[in-house]
Amino acid sequence: MRFLQISVVLCALAATAVTAQQGNTTQPANPPPAGGNTTQPANPPPAGGNSTAPGVSCGVQNDWSRIETQAQLAQLVGTNCTNLLGSLLLAGPGITDLSPLAKIESVQLSIDISGTNLRTLTGLGNLRTVGENLFIHDNAQLSNVFGLNSLTTIQGGVLVYQNPQLVSIAGLATLTNINPNKSPRFAFGISVYGNPILAALDGLQNLKSVGNVVIISNNTRLNSLDNLPSTGPFPVQSITIERLPVIKTLTPLSVFTSAANGTALKVTTCDSLTSLDGISLASVTNLTLTHNAALADVKVFGNSKISGPIVQVDDNTKLCDLSPLQTAAGGVSGAQILNTCGKPQQQTGGSSTAGGANSGGFPGGPNMPLPGSGSFRNEARFTFVTAVVGLLGTVFAF
Ligand SMILES: *[C@@H]1O[C@H](CO)[C@@H](O)[C@H](O)[C@H]1NC(C)=O
Ligand SMILES: *[C@@H]1O[C@H](CO)[C@@H](O)[C@H](O)[C@H]1NC(C)=O
Ligand SMILES: *[C@@H]1O[C@H](CO)[C@@H](O)[C@H](O)[C@H]1NC(C)=O
Ligand SMILES: *[C@@H]1O[C@H](CO)[C@@H](O)[C@H](O)[C@H]1NC(C)=O
Ligand SMILES: *[C@@H]1O[C@H](CO)[C@@H](O)[C@H](O)[C@H]1NC(C)=O
Ligand SMILES: *[C@@H]1O[C@H](CO)[C@@H](O)[C@H](O)[C@H]1NC(C)=O
Ligand SMILES: *[C@@H]1O[C@H](CO)[C@@H](O)[C@H](O)[C@H]1NC(C)=O
């Protein structure tokens, strides 16, 4: 059942269209921030305060403000708001201009920009901090994320996914901190997936913290992993490198090291990858290494310890020397290390890779709380559970 759940979530992430809704279509309310009221921005009352106060607040404490039109946006923000309470969902094609947000400096919880026809993020130029996650997804016209000129800190994760016209995330270049406290509450870290024409990861190079999770998946024209941050080391709990048919090397991943209890690693359906050089994980858990058509060299595991419960290596036609894996994973019960050397490649990419998904872990971090579990934040649940529900049909096919 656990395994099925993981598959479900994985399929959700593989979804093309995230349209299905859970029974309750209203925006989920956010629970209070952990630690009681201590994460509350120290705002004075918006009206009647003294004029030298640190800022004017708007929005709804610990809840979502769902905004679908420019008029709603203008009404929410007013003229002088600098601190947006709660979370902001900017949803749908009625959102055409972010300039009403020009004075916003902080958002208490999350921002979700989805389904808009924005081409860029001009208007968010004073935004410095996001208290939970920044979601940018399913925006049909979004070409870049320029406009975030002051953004330095995201306490949760940054998720950029399924933006069909997105060519660049260089607009994230001011960002230095993702989950600097490595709070286990935040399951995303760097999550960039399903952006079919994204060519490069420029924009992530200045990060000094990355959170717990790195997912770079299904960006089919991504040329390389260059411009991941270079000044680590960053211990992470999971790394997912998936469906990146053009990348030739993983060397930029050398900045990521094992978390105290190991790092879940998934490398799958990367057709041009010949070796895993760059992986610098002393302790690998939950290894999935499948459907890599050119992969011939896994010597990098010579110095690793690989542990279960799931270790799956399959359908890597060129991979003939399995010894570094077998040594590293010696004795792991349930390890499925299949020698597919010289056998016809079953699966080399494309979009029908749900089977690959079934073999690994949750791309959102295999060890992360699943949607619906108590510790999974509601705003994330909003984004993902809807997808899960829509894709149950796919799962039943397994
Ligand atoms: C990959 O991303 C594309 C574009 O967003 C999407 O259409 C496709 O379904 C995704 N494929 C998988 C297997 O996730
Ligand atoms: C829907 O969710 C809202 C916000 O969480 C809640 O107040 C409401 O009771 C829910 N309605 C149903 C029918 O579950
Ligand atoms: C938290 O704030 C709410 C109102 O904002 C208040 O009712 C409650 O007593 C506060 N709790 C603590 C622990 O301060
Ligand atoms: C605002 O006024 C209060 C007294 O009403 C004062 O204690 C506080 O320091 C003032 N804030 C600023 C930022 O000057
Ligand atoms: C916004 O700030 C300006 C300049 O400080 C002030 O003149 C104006 O009254 C404020 N507007 C509101 C609605 O508070
Ligand atoms: C590793 O540790 C982190 C943080 O304590 C925890 O969230 C995660 O579940 C652990 N992973 C495993 C496989 O125990
Ligand atoms: C590995 O997979 C197991 C079983 O699915 C899961 O319980 C565990 O949290 C995973 N560990 C990591 C680090 O992903």
Automatic annotation (TrEMBL):
Q: Does the keyword DNA-binding apply?
A: no
* UniProt-annotated stretches for the region Disordered: 22-55, 343-373
Span of domain Receptor L-domain: 142-223
Task: Write the record's keywords in alphabetical order, separated by commas.
Answer: Cell wall, Glycoprotein, Secreted, Signal
Compositionally skewed regions (Low complexity) per UniProt: 345-356
Q: What is the annotated signal peptide range for this record? A: 1-20
Please give the chief subcellular localization of this protein: secreted
Location of the protein in the cell: Secreted, Cell wall
What top-level branch of life does the organism fall under? Eukaryota
InterPro entries attached to this UniProt entry: CWI-Assembly_Regulator, Rcpt_L-dom, Rcpt_L-dom_sf
Question: Is Ubl conjugation one of the keywords?
Answer: no
Protein's name in the database: Receptor L-domain domain-containing protein
Q: Which organism is it from?
A: Spizellomyces punctatus (strain DAOM BR117)
